[in-house]
């Protein structure tokens, strides 16, 4: 699959922990374009896993995204984006910045997410992944009606072969 991404745009990655979102982002986008909620937690508390700082981390996450979008920079929002409200906030940021917003959903089986989580340095665990995977199933059913300019679903089999083609739109 070839995923065409206009530059500028806001690319919203959506999927449970362990589904390959961050690896996909690093493989296909410049490091400076990727805004990671985990990285924002680490910037505030020196620990990506410190959920106590999540409110501040997401304020920083949204602020960085808003600044990049306002400057018409290709931006990748790397978080789970499993809640409709989280996706709505990101769509609003894109609309204010007058850039397209693309949802990329990582449709990876729960067992694969668990296996990939087990190999990571910072594991979130089975119960968290199970809850996130259930929320992701809801997102799969509703996201096409949420107002994204483009919705792309990437399966586990497509992760290794998907290419991102960045198209300059300005």
From TrEMBL:
Lineage, top-rank taxon, reads Bacteria
Xref: Pfam families: AAA_33
Write down what this protein is called: ATP-binding protein
Which organism is this entry from?
Answer: Candidatus Segetimicrobium genomatis
């Amino acid at each position: 699959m070839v995923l065409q991404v206009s530059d500028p745009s806001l690319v919203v990655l959506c999927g449970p922990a362990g589904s390959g979102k961050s690896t996909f982002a690093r493989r296909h986008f410049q490091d400076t374009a990727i805004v990671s909620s985990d990285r924002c937690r680490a910037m505030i508390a020196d620990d990506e896993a410190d959920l106590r700082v999540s409110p501040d981390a997401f304020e920083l996450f949204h602020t960085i995204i808003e600044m990049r979008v306002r400057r018409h920079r290709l931006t990748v929002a790397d978080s789970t984006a499993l809640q409709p409200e989280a996706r709505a906030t990101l769509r609003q940021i894109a609309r204010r910045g007058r850039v397209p917003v693309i949802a990329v959903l990582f449709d990876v089986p729960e067992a694969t997410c668990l296996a990939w989580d087990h190999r990571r340095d910072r594991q979130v665990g089975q119960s968290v992944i199970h809850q996130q995977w259930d929320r992701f199933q809801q997102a799969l059913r509703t996201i096409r009606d949420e107002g994204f300019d483009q919705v792309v679903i990437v399966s586990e089999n497509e992760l290794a072969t998907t290419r991102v083609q960045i198209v300059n739109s300005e």
